[in-house]
Specification:
single chain, alpha/beta, Rossmann fold, GMP Synthetase, Chain A, domain 3, nine-stranded mixed β-sheet, 33 strands
């Protein structure tokens, strides 16, 4: 913006979309907010309080948002004008990122973590404890240094019931397990914990467990299911599972995340089976790989998927993957609308296997040791098969605890996040709701349009999860105009780098509520860096390591930068980490996550692979991957996988190199394919772009998009003939930077 906020006048507000009368009123309110902020800062200085450079724009923005001068229905151009004018002369390089949200002390004390700190902070921190905001970093440090105490607090906050209590929280006495054993000796069933009523957290039988709506039914009431109804449905399905499968069998789910998919997931875990998570967007080859690696004995799927008003076949894709047995759930109505193979069974036929029982809606859970596997999820490796990551009964506790502490999921919240059980966010969302007493909100269909936004409004969603590309689509189409999202108190986002202006649009829909950034991994069962409602927040950044988690940022020689230094480097995680993976089912866990990592403070660090930037002020920004793994649409994949497909897309392609980078102003990574052609052959880059896109979407994932194709005479290589993708990535970053300046 060319003007500072003090210079913005009514004519600027009119150009941004306000009527003259409203513009005149807002101009006066803005000038009053600026004047009040300046008086407050002068008074603080007179009282001897030190005022940091750059505090004025932050205080002005805090005053504007506290007064709710900007409304959700105001044009986005107005929100842009005010935000960028407030931070017009702000020097981010020396002051840290601009802040857009600030916790109040009263609000902080009502958060889950704030309440916990008010109860236990004075005991564990002593006289140094002040309040949840002032003492947050100190309490976080305590959670790292005394994880056994912190996790004893957290387990009391969640709906966890042990059949046999653990001998302790953390056992580090066994030298053969240098990273310790969590909750040793405990026996439980985590699905039972999700289904039983409790007084704390408040979860009575008549509480709402799930609300949902199908696409195309915008004018119908939201469907509701109580906790009691959910439990009965899960137990019915568990009984039906016993009639087909044997205890310990792996059973896949390849469905949209509907209420039936959630019921099936919980029933598999309740019955002592193992869920195999497969995303509903995968091509048959990718489905087959996951079924083979997990040794799945059967799979639940749908006849088709409803998305964007269209039907997409799903059963036919699953059948092409040739699993042993397919149980087919109707996507609409009561009956499956396709012809099934002889060995397959409809949903109705499957449930018939339990109806002969005297009490089909009653089931005795399969109680298991804490380290029994409940779910196999997948994370793409750089070559070969995707890594098969087992979740135990411990993993859901970790993922729910992070949601409880960082997104502040509470009993009574309505939590919605468009996702799928094939990705880590599916089980995360499920457990975050059912272990805290929140309501799970599910939309059956595409989240890209207004129908999803109306569901968010009608369901009374209070916590809304997103991915940046989704927010970008909402903003660009203005499809949410006129909807009321003001019940939302927290946004959350993960999967990709966030764009500042897209996030400005998102938070403005709910009077500038915080957007909690989350970054982690399937193998961690949750996050390692996140936002916090006890700290001011800046767009597109993480404000803290996750609770009980610590890390260092490494320089090129593998040495840790000082914790208070602004820097960029590869992250190294401290290895004692509640819920993190200890094995991989089809790879060497030690080699993947620990081999070659440096020792710090007597502990070998755990590899995660992110390049992390720590800003002035301690905020964190993910800069990409240390290896050649890329993040496309929130899905991690590898250069090798992309290249393998593109190399076969045209007979005149000699070789390809796939790299990705985020635009200069932030946002999702954009994929470019560098190509070397056969000598003397010519083809337009746009033609190759179309061929590559079709091949990738057909063979890997229909959600992946090629942004550009660059034809080059040769690739830069190492002495051992390896392609230097890093140099190609730098070239693509420079081009994106140039484009941003045009």
């Amino acid at each position: 913006m060319a003007k500072s906020i003090a210079e913005v006048g009514a004519e600027d507000l009119v150009r941004a979309g306000l009527a003259p009368e409203e513009a005149a009123l807002l101009e006066g309110e803005l000038k009053d907010a600026v004047a009040l902020s300046r008086r407050r800062l002068r008074a603080n200085a007179a009282a001897g309080e030190e005022t940091a450079r750059g505090e004025e724009p932050r205080d002005v923005w805090r005053e504007i948002t506290a007064r709710k001068l900007l409304k959700p229905w105001h044009p986005h151009a107005l929100h842009q004008l005010i935000y960028y004018s407030v931070y017009h002369d702000y020097d981010e390089s020396s002051l840290g990122p601009p802040l857009y949200w600030f916790p109040s002390l009263d609000e902080a004390k009502c958060t889950n973590l704030g309440r916990l700190m008010e109860t236990h902070g004075p005991k564990v921190l002593g006289a140094s404890y002040k309040d949840p905001i002032a003492s947050f970093k100190q309490f976080h440090k305590f959670s790292v240094e005394h994880p056994e105490i912190y996790w004893s607090f957290i387990l009391n906050e969640l709906s966890i019931r042990f059949r046999e209590a653990p001998k302790c929280i953390l056992d580090t006495s066994d030298k053969s397990k240098p990273r310790g054993s969590w909750l040793p000796g405990s026996v439980l069933n985590i699905a039972e914990c999700c289904l039983l009523p409790s007084s704390y957290p408040r979860k009575p039988d008549n509480s709402l467990a799930i609300v949902w709506r199908a696409e195309g039914r915008d004018d119908e009431d939201v469907n509701c299911m109580s906790l009691k109804e959910l439990r009965e449905q899960v137990m019915l399905v568990a009984n039906a599972l016993d009639s087909i499968f044997s205890k310990g069998d792996t059973i896949a789910i390849d469905m949209q995340m509907t209420e039936k998919a959630v019921i099936i997931y919980l029933a598999i875990v309740l019955g002592g089976f193992v869920v195999v998570s497969i995303a509903d967007s995968f091509a048959p080859k990718e489905i087959a790989t996951r079924l083979r690696v997990s040794k799945a004995q059967g799979i639940f799927t749908q006849d088709f998927i409803m998305r964007g008003g269209r039907r997409f076949p799903l059963y036919s894709r699953v059948v092409e993957a040739a699993p042993k047995k397919v149980i087919v759930v109707p996507a609409a109505g009561e009956d499956v609308e396709i012809q099934l193979r002889q060995q397959d069974v409809s949903w109705e036929g499957f449930l018939a296997g339990a109806h002969h029982l005297p009490r089909p809606s009653y089931y005795t859970p399969a109680y298991q040791p804490i380290d029994a596997i409940t779910n196999i999820l997948f994370s793409s490796g750089t070559t070969g098969d995707p890594k098969a990551i087992p979740w135990t009964h411990l993993s859901p506790m970790r993922t729910a605890a992070d949601s409880w502490a960082h997104a502040d999921v509470q009993a009574g919240d309505v939590y919605c996040w468009p996702t799928n059980l094939g990705w880590v966010m599916g089980p995360t969302l499920l457990y975050a709701c059912f272990l805290t007493g929140a309501t799970l909100a599910l939309y059956h269909g595409s989240p890209l349009g207004r129908s999803f936004g109306k569901f968010v409004q009608d369901a009374g969603v209070t916590i809304l999860g997103t991915v940046p590309s989704l927010v970008k689509a909402w903003k660009s189409t203005d499809c949410m105009k006129g909807l009321d999202w003001t019940r939302i108190r927290v946004f959350a986002t993960t999967g990709e780098a966030s764009n500042v202006d897209d996030d400005l649009w998102l938070t403005s829909r709910a009077y500038y509520k915080p957007i909690v950034e989350c970054c982690g991994g399937t193998e961690l069962a949750s996050t390692y860096i996140a936002g916090s409602l006890l700290q001011p927040q800046a767009f597109g950044t993480f404000s803290t390591a996750s609770m009980s988690v610590d890390f260092v940022i490494l320089d090129e020689d593998g040495h840790a930068y000082p914790d208070d230094k602004a820097c960029i480097g590869e992250v190294g995680l401290f290895p004692i980490n509640f819920g993190a993976s200890e094995v991989l089912l089809n790879a060497d866990h030690e080699r993947v996550y620990f081999k070659g990592m440096p020792v710090h403070k007597g502990m070998q660090l755990r590899r995660h692979g992110d390049i992390l930037k720590r800003t002035v002020g301690g905020y964190l920004v993910v800069q990409g991957r240390a290896d050649d793994t890329m993040n496309l649409g929130g899905i991690k994949t590898s250069s090798v996988e992309i290249e393998r497909v593109c190399n076969l897309a045209d007979k005149n392609v000699v070789e390809t190199a796939a790299v990705s980078a985020s635009p200069a102003n932030g946002g999702p990574e954009q994929l470019v394919i560098f190509v070397v052609l056969k000598e003397g052959f010519k083809i337009a880059p746009e033609e190759l772009k179309t061929k590559f896109s079709r091949a990738i979407q057909r063979n890997l994932n229909p959600l992946f998009k090629v942004n550009a194709v660059k034809i080059v005479p040769s690739f830069p290589r190492t002495a051992s003939n390896k392609v230097l993708r890093r140099l190609l990535r730098d070239k693509w970053k420079q081009e994106l930077l140039t484009q941003s300046k045009l």
